[in-house]
Amino acid sequence: MDTPLSTVAVVGLGTMGTGIAEVLARAGREVIGIDISEEAARLAVSSLEASTARAVERGRITDEERRDALARFRTFSDLQAASEADLVIEVVHESYEAKQQVFHALDAIVRPTAVLATGTNALSVTRLAADSAHPERVLGMHFFNPAPAMKLVEIVSSVLTAPQAVEAVTALARELGKEPVAVGDRPGFVADGLLFGYLNQAAAMYEAKYASREDIDAAMRLGCGLPMGPLALLDLIGIDTARTVLDAMYAESHDRLHAPAPILKQLSEAGLSGRKSGRGFYTYEAPGSQTVVRDAFTPLESATATPGRPVRSVGVAGSGTMASGIAEVFAKAGYDVVLAARSQEKADKAKARIAKSLARSVDKGRMTAEAREETLGRVTPAGSLDAFSDVDLAVEAVAEDLAVKQELFATLDKVCKPGAVLATTTSSLPVVACARATSRPQDVIGMHFFNPAPAMKLVEVVRTVLTSDAVHATVREVCAKIRKHPVDCGDRAGFIVNALLFPYLNNAIKMVEQHYATLDDIDAAMKLGGGYPMGPFELLDVVGLDVSLAIEQVLHREFRDPGLAPAPLLEHLVAAGCLGRKTGRGFREYAGR
To answer: Is 179 among the catalytic positions?
Structure first.
C-alpha cells in the first residue's frame, strides 16, 4: 500500500465530487470522474472549466496550468474506469445501500494496493469497511463544502484500517494544501458532530416560535462572528442531509440534542430541502439559487404599530468593562449619559476607561479629536443611583447575581421617574425576576449587549410576559439610533446566542473527555471546517471557564435535559481555579494573564 496516489477516481460528480475533482486536478493528480449520469459528468466538466477560468482571471493560475488541469480530468459512466486508480473517493448519495453497492463493485475492479475512501459525514466507516473484501484499505476522507475553498479534511480510520492507508491519504491531503485531522469512526466525526447538534437546536428553537428565523440567524452571525446563521446553513447543507446525519448521531448517542427536530422531518418529507429545492427554512428565487425572496413568513419592514417613548438621556449602572462600553455606545450616538457606580471613584475610573477607548479610536482614524471630546463631555460619572432621577432609560450592567440585580432594580424603582424604561443586560438570569423587584414590571426589559459593546453589533431584546408594547418599541428604536441590530426573544435561559452556543461548547469538552480528539484538532476542525472565528477551547478560555460553567448550569436547570449537564472536566478545571486566560491557565496555559 506504499503508493503516491497519483491517479485518483472520484465516484459521484455532484457538487462535492466535482469540487474534490477540481482540487485534485489543480494539484497535479490524474482524476477519473465517474457518474452514471452523463448530465452530471457534463456539468462537472463545465464547472471545472468555469472555476479554472476565474482562477486565471484572478491571477491564481496561468493559462497553461489551466489547460493541464482540464486535461487531467476525464469523465466516465462506468465504475470499470476506476481500475487504474491508486485511490478511489466515493461521494455518492448518503445511504448505506448506495455506498455499499459502490464498494462491492470496486472490490472486483481496483488493484489490491488501491485505497478506498468514503466521503460520508454521517455513516459508519467501519460498517462500510466490514462489508468490503479488503477492509484494511477502507477509510473516510471527509472534505467540506466547497471543497476548493475549505481547508479541513477529516481522515477517518476504523479499527480495521491499515496505518499505511491512513498515512498515504494524510500525505495526499497535505499535498493538496489541506489540513488533515485524524479522527475515529463515529457519526459526524468532529466538525459535523459538533455542528449538527447546534443546527438541530436552532431548528427546534424556530419550531417552538421562540424567535424568528431572521433573528436566530442574525443573532449567531453578529453575536458569534459566524459566516452564516444556522437556519440559512441548514438550507445550504440540505435539510434532508441534516436529518440523515442527526438520525445517525442519535442512533449512537441517544442524546436528545441529536434527536432530529420534527420540523426537519416535515420539511424534508415535503421536498423542501433547502436551496437545492428552492425552499427550506427560507424561500429562494429558484432551485439552486442563493437569493432569498419574500414569503409568507418574512417580517414586514413597516414601523411598529406601537410608538416608543422619547429617550433623551440614559443612565448606565456599573463600573466594569461592559458598563463603560455601553455608556460609550450611547454617548457616541448623541445621548447624555449618567454613569453611576457604587462610589464616585469607581465612576471616575469607568469614565477614564471610556476616555482611553475613544483615544484609541482617534489614533486609528475612526473619529476626530473634537468628536472624542464631545462624546466624553456627554458622560457624567456619579457615585449614586440617585443621579438617575431624570433619565429616560436606565441600563444596569452590574454583577451577574440575581440578588444584586434585584436590589438594584428595587432602587431604580424608587429613584427613576414614572415612564422611564428599566433594562437589564443579564445574559443568563430571568428578566422577570428583576421586573418583579419593582412596582412597574411593565417598564422592565432585557437589553443584552455583547462584549465589547462598542464593537459588537448585536443586542438581544428580551420581553417578559409583563413587558409593555411601548417599552419594547422604545428599546427597538433606541437600538436603531445606537446602530445596533436588535433581535427579539422571550425570557428564558440563554436567550438565543448562549442557548445555542454553550451546548456546542459543552459537547466539545465531552469529546476531549472521551479521548476522541485533541483540543488542537477540535479547534482546527471548527475553524477550518465550520468557518468559526475561534475554536471552542480558544473561546472557552477567553470567556472564562467559571462564566461558561455558570451559563451551562443555568441552561441545565431550566431545560432539565441530561445532554445539557456541564461536562465534568469543565467543573474540575473551575474547582482547580483554572479559569482561562484571566488566570493564566484553562484548557491551555498562557504566558501571562
So the answer is: no
Q: Any long-range contacts for 466-469 (C-beta under 8 Å, 24+ apart)?
A: 466/432, 466/435, 466/441, 466/442, 467/435, 467/441, 467/442, 468/442, 468/443, 469/304, 469/306
Give the span between the Cα atoms of 542 and 540, in whole angstroms: 5
Q: Is 423 helix (H, G, I), strand (E, B) or coil?
A: strand
Once rounded to an integer, what is the mean pLDDT over residues 248-256? 87
Question: Tell me, what's the pLDDT at 592?
Answer: 65
Could you give the percent of the chain with pLDDT greater than 90? Answer: 91
Residues 6 or more apart whose Cβ sits within 8 Å of residue 353? 321, 324
Beta-carbon contacts of 578 under 8 Å, excluding residues fewer than 6 positions away, are 545, 585, 586
Average per-residue pLDDT in the chain? 95
User: Measured between alpha carbons, how far is 212 from 219 in angstroms, rounded to an integer?
Assistant: 10
8 A C-beta contact, residue 316 and residue 342: no
Is 506 known to be catalytic? no
Out of 427, 468, 506, 507, pick the active-site residue. Answer: 427
Q: What is the rounded average pLDDT of the residues 232-236?
A: 96
Per the annotation, the verdict on 448 as an active-site residue is yes
197-217 pLDDT, tens digit each: 999 999 999 999 999 999 999
Nearest residue to 155 via CA among 127, 120, 193: 120
In the prediction, which pLDDT does 302 show?
A: 60
Our answer to whether residue 498 is catalytic in this structure is yes
Tell me 274's DSSP state. Answer: B
Q: Which residue has the cell 440559512?
A: 232
Q: What is the pLDDT of residue 254?
A: 87
Mean pLDDT of 435-458: 97
Does 21 score more than 90 pLDDT? yes
User: Distance (Å, rounded) from C-alpha 514 to C-alpha 516?
Assistant: 5
Cell 434527536 belongs to residue:
259
154 φ, ψ to 5°?
A: -85, 120
CA-nearest of 290, 491, 300, 312 to 419 is: 312
Q: Which residue has the cell 482617534?
A: 362
- β-pair type (87-90, 7-11): parallel
**Which of the following is catalytic: 121, 268, 324, 498?**
498
Which residue in the list 396, 460, 538, 552 is annotated as catalytic?
Answer: 460
